[in-house]
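Example A, followed by Example B.
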Amino acid sequence: MQSIILTQTNFNKLKEEIKKNKDKKRIFTSEDDELNRKVLEKLEINILLLNQKNRKDFAKQRNSGLNQVLAKIAKKNKIQIGINIDELISSQGKTKAQILARIQQNIKLCNKNKIQMQFISKSKQTPNSLKALGSTLGMPTWMTSKLVNEDV
């Protein structure tokens, strides 16, 4: 199945784009957490792609873009959570460490709520390397066994 990444910031225009692309796997990504929640609740998407690079952490907590409320909504609507591999590969130093920590936090939340995660990348990755990365980051075996690289 072909995939399409939706990055629209206007909710009504996003609804139109989703209606046009019913036959494709719909991956939505946005920097706006409120829009992410609205889309999770009301629109039919397959994967919510959370970008970690431009986020600022809170004083005593990481800002990973996913919390228990969003996790429960995603579970109810059968929406998978996406991890952007490209931003992980292109970052370095402290930024890479922060991205890895945020991804680990999201993995714990998804494991607790039994939500499947996927790696999203423009570059081709082998299934074995994705499973190895998932295991290293703390994904349980039920999650890593269903990992595929979504080509976009």
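Example B, a separate protein, is given below in the same form.
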Amino acid sequence: MRKHWIYIILCVFLLSCNRDERPFVISKIKSVAKLATTETIIDKTVVGTKTKRVLGLIRLNEANFVAYTEATVKTGIDLGKLEPADVEINGKEIRVELPAVEVLDFQYPFDKFVVDSTILNDSWVNRFDVLDYEEFYRQAELDIREQLQYTGIISATQDRTRIMMEGLLKNLGYEAIFISFRETKQLFEPVNLEGEE
């Protein structure tokens, strides 16, 4: 009878030593869900020029304006995309490859598009209308989207995410923590704001 209990205790001990900790760790990491780690406010100055020509050759008049705009971008890691193969555990050492940085929220409100009336230069011959302002606004948004990944926002987001994840994994008892990220190819999918297919 005594051998029977020793055998049971030994089996339980071996099973607890050999169990895979990855599901537990992955569930803890995924519980954070979409981790918005960086919020960036981008101020952009838009300069517009409209030229009026006669017969397409002679410049009759040129109108200019300057507008100030503001975009708010939140970037982070969607930890819901973490796969079991992204986590390797070896005793107190853990290696995690996190999903790529992505834009979680992008706001570019039109009410932040403010035309500087002191620089506005138009005349009765050549005036800016609402359609002109909308086109400049649209072009400014496309420019922000295209240039965003060159601003350092990806590395800033990775650095902040790494600090947060290291704290979480240290609390889970890991001493050697190695965190990497999947490559961020582009923050935005190509967007056609003109409505063309």
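On Example B: Residues 153-171 form the longest helix (19 residues).
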